[in-house]
Specification:
This protein has a domain of 119 residues. The protein is of the alpha+beta class. The longest helix has 27 residues. Helix content is 33%, strand content 29%.
Length: 177
Amino acid sequence: MFFRMKRRILSGAATFGLAASALILTSCSTVESRISHHPEVYQGLSPSDQQLVSNGQIRVGMPQEAVWLAWGAPEQKASGAMRNQATETWIYITYRSGYPYGYPYGPYGGFYGGVGFGFVSGHRIHRHHHRSFVFFGDPFYDPFFYSHIPPSIPVPYKTVTFANGRVVSFQYLQGYR
């Protein structure tokens, strides 16, 4: 029991530390800092692309280096093909705090704005071998885990796809523009 709780605490601490590190590392890089550290890349862009990059925007046909200046380094990259041409897609991720799948359930059952295994009535009678047991709340509810800091959930919010080092498409996921 002790080791399971210790493992759960360490796992939660490691997850929090990783999310905090990712947030700190990505927040250190801004459009201005990337431009100031790589002025030769910025100066090599057309005036219209310089304006877009300065505003953190991109366009189809823009070179990969300009996208890096405007949006920074992606959290993930994916290789693929489009019309028999090799592509690379950059995926940018943000972190939302919250509980997936409707967690947490209240300590006495019920739902907190979600769906799942919670009991709306607040208790449940279970019969086993001619004995009755009363369970209050959700049998999967963990008051230590769900009553503290909500977990950080990675969510992709924009992507850009390149072919031959140029933007061929980009997307903003709804609600993140």
